[in-house]
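REQUEST FORM: STRUCTURE PREDICTION
Request ID: SP-0412
Submitted by: Lab K.M.
Chain count: 1
Length (residues): 728
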Amino acid sequence: MNKIDISIIIVNYKSKKELFDCIKSIETSNTKATYEIIVVDNDGEKRFEKELKKMFESVKYIKSPTNIGYGAGNNLGAKFARGKYLFFLNPDTRTYPEAIDELFRFISRDNEIGIVAPLLFDKNNNPYPLQGTRFLTPIRAIFSLSFINKLIPANRIYKDYYLIGWDKKNIKEVDVVPGTAFMIKKEIFKKINGFDENFFLFFEEFDLCKRVRELEYKIFITPKARIIHKWGVSSSRSRQDIKKIFSNSRFYYFKKHFGLFSAILTETFLRIDKHIVLLICALTIGFFLRIYKLSETMSFIGDQGWFYLSAKDMVLTGKIPLVGITSSHTWLHQGPYWTYILALIFKIFGFNPLIPGYFTAVVGSLSIFIIYKIVKKMFEKNTAIVSSFLYAISPLIIINERFPYHTTLIPLFTILFIYSLFKWVKGEVIYFIWVIMLIGILYNFELATFSLAGVLLVFFLSGLAWKRKWALNIINKKILSLIVVGIIFTMLPVIIHDIKNGFLQTFGYFAWVSLKLINSVPGLISATDMPNGEIFVFLFNEYRKIIFPINQPIALLFLFSTFLYLIYRAIAKKNISEIIIIFLFLITVLAFLINKIPSQAYLPVFFPVVIIISAIFLQYLIKKFKVIGVLLMVILIFTNIYYFLNKINSGSPEFLIRRNATEKIYQLTSGNAYNLIGKGTGSQFDSFTMNYEYLLWYYYKSEPSKNDENLKIYIEENNNKILVNKND
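STATUS: Completed
RESULT:
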């Protein structure tokens, strides 16, 4: 058997063409040292071995059981290596003449040398500026690989780590060589037990070189050996998780060599990029705006009082309500979910009326993060950042999330509905169950959100018509059973209520919705309905408050441009994400027109859709006309923040005013039994005084009598003033 000097080990994954070019360059390099070429196949393409053997008969082919990773693939090749030296080489390289001989001469002349690597060149024959480094430590990583290097570019630690100033015409001793190509003595490779196979890809050379240096061997890069590298061909192909693999390997490296705490701290810095910084800014701004002067200005209307009293009774008596407050159609009730959430808040944190306001402010801030994550998955990072900022600084959304009410959490669950619908239409059938359950959850917050069932129906019927698997696969026993379970689970309180009270909340509601749809046909519209023109004016005015309340013409132009652009994108690119958003917007607007009640309670379901379509258009402007787009974004952020803060600072401290009115009521009672009676606009509703009743109970342990008492306290709300009198 002939003596082999060098075993050249190449791990192949999705790089057949590059591999064949690499082997050709080796065979034509006039290498005088004896060598063998070992190809480890991590790919598994059926015809690969046959094609390889046909072109290169002498190459030793080793099939790995699966894609075991770069380090493990090299270890597998090393087991079959007969050479005294191992030359690990990426397939996307080409070898210059005499490069292998130069590496062989260099490493074999000195027993203190453990590893030698060639100088890497790009396709234009220019050396890569950064190759070879010092040891990668947490400090070097933080100052060289994180956002800190962008804040302090080319800092001293960065220069030291990357060996800035090295004249690449000269040989350089380094701590780490690129894993692209390097030669190592086989005995040393065995002594360190080869590559650590816990590194699937990336950072395995940092670990291996560190272990070689710990044995006091030297590591060099010699420019006399030259190799061309295309960089990242195999890793970039067919790997959707490449960033995750990179991050996991980096974390493992720091954990292995510096401990868990250092790894967590370092990785925290390294994972902060411009998107994370911007997201943190959006979250900080959004949270600040949602809690700013909340204890003074939180809205606390009579209908809120209804829920507070219901939740209080649930906690104190254990009696669970099955429905919520009556809707605008008094024979229908809202669902009980908000009562349950309030009861849980009161149970954990006590009955302070401000706590639910802080709860919804926190949930609203969380929604900023969730809309970022979901838009990132449905579109891309930049659009997600724009979405998070628009959501964070939208005046109407902020006001909604400072207002602890049964409609406040609707945007959050609508965002989740959009994502679940997206995942279902992309082929993950199990998400259909989540779509159904989210419709049920939203119904239990606000009946009007049932319009989202129309969106679901459109996609389901179109999926059946076009025979899409994501629609057809729903029709099986398992999925249908889960649908039934999901409906019962989310609607259980309402179902129990309807069993006792005649099914008005379910069948009665669905019949009423059907009647509304029929009556929406032109010519059948009731004379008492509000004209569509007024509804459009109402919707546009509310849209302004979401996006740009300061200027009506600009807001109108922005809305018109946004919608035209989105329709163009959906038609031109047939992007399912954009199609979902368009249908969601159109169907919810149509439902609003059919209902013909200009109530702000029906608006929160629009918030995520309006934010997303606006973000798509804004990101287009930023990408196409960078200065104009960024300037518009900055103007939106600052003007909306100014508008909101000015509104809060110039308005009346609503909660404090109600608190003072409550104190006056209590003083007028002088400890006697009393009736609390509403007067003026809105007093015809039972809930008119319920906010005051809750405040009286919480602050003064005083409750109005249910009997007819001599002492009667009258309360009237008029032009932001609260008038309190007794026995007028």
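NOTES: The radius of gyration is 34 Å.
Reviewed by: T.R.
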